[in-house]
Design a protein that fits this description.
The chain is about 30% helix and about 20% strand. The chain is built from six helices and eleven strands. The strands form three sheets. The protein has a seven-stranded mixed β-sheet with strand order 5-2-1-6-7-11-10, sandwiched between helices. Strands 3-4 form a two-stranded antiparallel sheet. Strand 3 (about 50) and strand 4 form a beta hairpin. Helix 1 (about 25-35) packs parallel to helix 5 (about 165-175) and helix 5 packs antiparallel against helix 6. The model has no long low-confidence stretch (mean pLDDT about 95).
């Protein structure tokens, strides 16, 4: 009798892109949750290896965004100002957003990034999207703004801001590793009871 083959578990990959002025909670929370869920998270700096956040917390990234090759299972874009505006200035990032959307890969953006980064890429047409309260005025006319803390529409996950970062991170985790594992991690972190 032949020995049983070990089942190969596909490790999911996440890419978090940070630009100067990012909202720290919106970046660190999903990174932490996803790493606890055994997702391979790469944190990439848009213009520098050490990226200062909106509230002077600097994060040392794994790589520069220009060095990143391939397509992750999920792209995560924190908000914050001027972080979102700095992300929006990257042609390479816009190209990756469009390619990932065409491939049905998950794109997750929070706070200002749905309006400032995703809307100009053209991928939000006729989709339910949430963002930081008051910023929905910046959406194109065919976007369907939502007041949900976390809105999911197909391959798109959006969220409102720092307070919703935990729910946002768990929703991304659920899409990558399943509800059971996401809930287990949420429970271990005392977020879910």
């Amino acid at each position: 009798m032949a020995p049983k083959k070990k089942e190969m578990k596909m490790i999911k990959k996440a890419l978090v892109v940070l630009a100067e002025g990012f909202e720290e909670v919106e970046a660190v929370t999903p990174i932490d949750i996803l790493r606890r869920c055994e997702v391979e998270v790469t944190v990439a700096g848009l213009r520098s290896e050490i990226v200062p956040g909106a509230h002077n917390l600097a994060i040392k990234t794994d790589i520069m965004f220009e060095q990143y090759e391939g397509m992750p299972d999920v792209l995560i874009l924190p908000g914050g100002m001027p972080g979102a505006e700095n992300l929006a200035s990257s042609v390479k990032l816009k190209d990756l957003i469009v390619k990932m959307n065409s491939s049905g890969k998950i794109i997750a953006a929070i706070c200002a990034s749905p309006v400032v980064v995703l809307d100009p890429s053209g991928i939000l047409s006729k989709r339910n999207v949430t963002c930081y309260p008051g910023m929905e005025k910046g959406f194109s006319p065919d976007v369907r703004p939502s007041k949900e803390d976390v809105a999911e529409d197909g391959n798109l996950i959006t969220s409102r801001g720092p307070w919703t970062a935990f729910s946002f991170g768990l929703k991304v985790a659920e899409k990558l590793v399943g509800q059971a594992k996401a809930e287990m991690v949420g429970s271990q972190m005392l977020y879910l009871k």
